[in-house]
Amino acid sequence: MKIVVLIGSPNKNGSTNLIAREFEKGAIEAGHQVVMLDVAHANVGVCGGCVACGYNGPCVKKDDMENIKKEILSADMLVFATPLYYYGMSAQLKTVVDRFCSFNSSLQIKHLKSALLAVAWNSDDWTFEALVSHYKTLVRYLNLSDQGMILGRGCGTLGMTSRSVYMNKAYELGKSLR
Ligand SMILES: Cc1cc2nc3c(=O)[nH]c(=O)nc-3n(C[C@H](O)[C@H](O)[C@H](O)COP(=O)(O)O)c2cc1C
Questions:
Q1: Which helix (H) or strand (E) covers residue 102, if one does?
Q2: Among 44, 67, 97, 102, fewest CB within 10 Å belongs to which?
């Protein structure tokens, strides 16, 4: 299947990218096509809330979201990859999610598979509570089918992350996809 990974970290060589690349490795080994989209450095403006799109029409903003939309609507699976920022997804990733507005209905009827890849400095057991709740709500609303979550607690630096169990967990999640 075709898997689109939305990478929402501004650090190209940071922990989010590290985990996402392990996931990609596993998924490619399992025979999937993986498209890694660095949405943090894409030219994507915030949703202006004008609703000229009517929730499923052309967006008035002409930017990199046109290509991101094309990739998502031709995919079988959508992966959200993000560092934890104040207990939610990064603003860079949320900006892209808000722009789903102009193809909301098209997305809902696709019934895409999905996954969440996230890293955080904290290692408390409640670290990902708010993010997981948001992700599960998106899964429900967008008719996604969750295939798994990698929640990298104690992954505050590249060193911490590369030594963590989450590297292998991300690889195994990619490899397990059918
Ligand atoms: C703006 C900002 C907010 C952050 N908020 C949190 C947080 O709420 N909880 C947490 O555990 N770590 C937080 N962190 C730490 C990052 O999630 C962590 O360092 C992560 O590994 C960064 O991933 P990256 O290497 O892909 O940038 C924050 C970091 C930044 C820069």
A1: none
A2: 67
According to the model, what pLDDT value does residue 16 have?
99
Ligand 1 centroid to Cα of residue 30, in Å, is 30
| Structural domain count of the chain | 1
- Contact residues of ligand 1, CB 6 A cut-off: 9, 11, 14-16, 83-87, 119-122, 127, 155-156
pLDDT tens digits along 106-151? 999 999 999 999 999 999 999 999 999 999 999 999 999 999 999 9
pLDDT grade for 104, boundaries at 50, 70 and 90: very high
| Domain with 172 in it | 2-176
d(CA 60, CA 135): 27
What pLDDT, on a 0 to 100 scale, did the predictor assign at position 64? 98
Q: Mutation test of ligand 1: which of 6, 11, 21, 86 has the most ligand atoms closer than 8 Å to its C-beta?
A: 86
CATH code (residue 6): 3.40.50.360
What count of Cα atoms within 13 Å lies in the side-chain half-sphere of residue 11?
16
Strand partners, 44: none
Ligand 1 atom, smallest distance to 157 CA: 21
Phi, psi of 14 (to 5 degrees): -100, -170
